[in-house]
Amino acid sequence: MLFRQGGWDDGFTTQLFERLLDWCNQRDIDRLLTYNGAWFDAKHLLNWADELDATTDTELYERTAALFENHIDVALAAADEYADELWDDQPILPDWKAYDLAEIDNNGVWYDDYQFPDSYLDDVDGKAMQGKHIGQVIGERYVDNVTAGLEATSVHTELTRLLEDYCTSDVADLVELYTALGGPTLDDTYRRPPNTIN
User: Fold this and answer.
1) For residues 194 and 71, what is the distance between their CA atoms, to the nearest angstrom?
2) What average pLDDT does this structure show over 2-23?
3) Per-residue model confidence as pLDDT tens digits over 170-196
4) pTM, entire model
5) Which helix (H) or strand (E) element contains residue 162?
6) Cβ contacts of 2 within 8 Å, gap of 6 or more
7) What is the DSSP letter of 186?
8) How far apart are CA 162 and CA 153, in angstroms?
């Protein structure tokens, strides 16, 4: 798990990209799996890298795009497999629904299992961690703690544990869904390289 080691300025963002790219370069990676990555993960990472290249002395876009050359979007496979479950205007299923239909135990990560001050998560809607919570509240809390030098506090330690547990569960469930839907047989049909991502 790679965490931002500073605030929101470009230097720390570049550092995070470099750590990601270094981590990937040290491994033999034959495919990159996402759930809805063609509309979210790839789109945001590539846009972010492009913006950094335009304003700083970096070459992150090409290197990040290379990670997505063999990108398999499992959400598209789930949408085809469970097409009868889609609403008329719904291109993909929520990940929890796909896991449920594939009979994958996606228990979730519950806020009550972590020790936070009473009002710390008042801005979060729901009792279980969701990806949107990272963008709405949790990510900013994490960065605020880092920039304030609060990494050694019990609250930040719990927040880090919460994020680690959520991300680990998210990845494990995604790999299980990929396998349940056909594994490598999905690759040619659901490959979404950078040139197919807007």
Assistant:
1) 8
2) 96
3) 999 999 999 999 999 999 999 999 999
4) 0.91
5) helix 154-181
6) 16, 19, 20, 23
7) G
8) 14
pLDDT exceeds cutoff 90 at 36: yes
User: What are the pLDDT digits (tens) for 83-135?
Assistant: 999 999 999 999 999 999 999 998 889 999 999 998 999 999 999 999 899 99
Cα distance between residue 126 and residue 136, in whole Å? 12
132: left (phi over 0), alpha (psi -120 to 50) or beta: alpha
Residue owning tokens 């040619």: 188
Tell me what pLDDT residue 107 has: 82
| Residue 124: both structure tokens together | 């979060």
Structure tokens at 46: 């590539």
The CA distances from residue 91 to 17, 62, 75, 88, 95, in Å, are 30, 29, 9, 8, 12
**Six token digits for residue 6:** 């500073």
Q: Which of 84, 87, 88, 81 is nearest to 102 (CA)?
A: 81
Residue 26 CA to residue 130 CA, distance in Å, equals 30
C-alpha separations of 35 from 4, 26, 43, 165 in Å: 22, 24, 12, 18
| Measured distance CA(54)–CA(183) in Å, rounded | 37
Q: The tokens of 43 are what?
A: 């789109």
